[in-house]
Hints:
heterodimer; A: alpha/beta; six-stranded parallel sheet; 8 strands; disordered C terminus; B: mainly alpha; 10 helices; elongated
Amino acid sequence: MKPLFLIPIVLWLVVVLLLAPSDALRLWAGWFPAPVAPTPIPAGRYKRLRSRSLPPPAYYIVFLDGISKGTYRNLAIVDDFLTGLHEVLPDAAIVSDVLPYSVFNMSVIDERRPMSRFWTLVEGYKERDNPIGFLINIRNFLQGMVSADWRYGLAYNAAMSKLILFGLVRHGYDLNAPAPIVIIGYSGGGQVAAGAGGLLRNALAVPVHVVSIAGVMAGNAAFDTIDSWHQIVSNRDPVEKLGFIFFPMRWPIMFFSPWNQAKRQGRARIVRLDGARHDKVRSYMDPVAPAPGGGTMLERTIATVAGIIRRELPTEAPVTLSTRPAATSATGTTSQAVATTDGTSGTAPTAPGATEPPVGG
Amino acid sequence: MVERTLPGTVLDYLPLLIDRALRLDTDAYAVFQTLPGSSWVAWAVIIGAAISQAAGQSALLLLNRVRPASFMYALLAVATSLAGGLMVWLLSTWVITRWLFGVELPFGAVARTLAFACLPLWLAFLAAIPYFGLAMFAALAFWCLLGVATGLTALSGLSMGQAIAAATFGWLAWQVLERTIGRPVVAIGRQLERRAAGVDLRTDVLGLAALIEEETKQVGASLVEAVLKEAAPGPSPDDPGPTPGEPGPTPSEPV
């Protein structure tokens, strides 16, 4: 029997693949009647972590979530991560209201989308952990491919860099005195961080650092400009390795690729958080699962990311640790020297078990 | 095995011929060019291949900022240019076959056969697929090259290696021609594309790379200005504004 039922699925997939870059390219070409400012965040759906009454932050952290993100709402573990990170890095403002897979910063369930009803349905399935909910991941994965494509990437990444800049301004970023930026890209957010980060670096002329938590990225031209890239990987995370398999620019044989050059120059580094899975239980942000060496996975990840950021952006601001989450003290993390590939060292609180070998995928 | 002399027209055998040609069956090519109506099919294949290739490049028209009103004209201009390119390739392959291997073949038969071999390029629109599209197009182009070589083998008795060499040298000759004595023709083609698209179209690899490099610099130079221009004044409705004490709640979006 011929698998005829596959024909409509393949046709649907081809159409979806072909249409994936259309939003970014039409926006780029100016096919929309007026300049498109990002969609405002609906009331009550996002609140800033840092009060505006506090002194201006020393730097800004932009969080770009993985491909399961379709709406402004974060997963609980992401909220925990961001809250914990903010408490460890009170001198930073955290921007997490940028949707990395929409050039309009528009939630997939936004009523202005032609297929919003469909995506609302899918989102409902996703909340019930039904496999149909994975369609959102597929949709967002395709947007990541657009970002990674050397032909379309500029159109997509230009839109995303604009959205990020809008997000930064929303959170008090002063364009006349721009502060350094750290982009944390989780999974597919790593690709968007690479694409948009390079453009932001050029536009603002401030240091742009990227911490990629299991980022799946192409390793293309953006790596020429980004100041530092820390790729957090794990031996239990096969998804992160897919980026290494699918994107030839990451292969060691591509000696002159921007990724490999950045690695040789010490700007791109691998940080191992072994034992963590890509998502869900025992993931990098699991607040319950114990991490090798003590503490939870979440605490280890927060401490590692904070350590990287402190090393790249040392500030005079005092660090006040609150009682929750006990990301540093209670987990036994310590302030220690972090070995780097270029032979330098920096003081940073790192979690036990976090290692930074000189080379890697 | 398909017989070399068949009654009827090419349309009577078209599905079978297409199936066999895509499988690189020498007999399919040998029979195809003998059948009445094969010239029309050959033209259809070339035109279809060019339109499909142009559709694969349609996204690049947007990257070139072609206006909506000019889009279809630009697509037509690109398709015409691609069809012309394919025909020049077939012509130069025929010439190379004569000069390099001393095989005298009637041009009509070669043109029909080799045009039919471009059938895989009907899927060239898949080149528009993000990231993997170019690899797909490369595979289709290679498939087409093998088809042309199979067609040459069927007509001339050349070995497969010689036929691939003829098709490859034919392609190289086309590239050299474009950059030497063919420049005036190319310039006219470009001019027509420009008039149709309303912009200086750059869809070839080198032109596109240059375009992307220029535009990347431009984005860097204009991003801040664009945000300043478009940013809505005042706080957004969700913004709690200055609040004393601890930071607000974490991001949330009620369902």
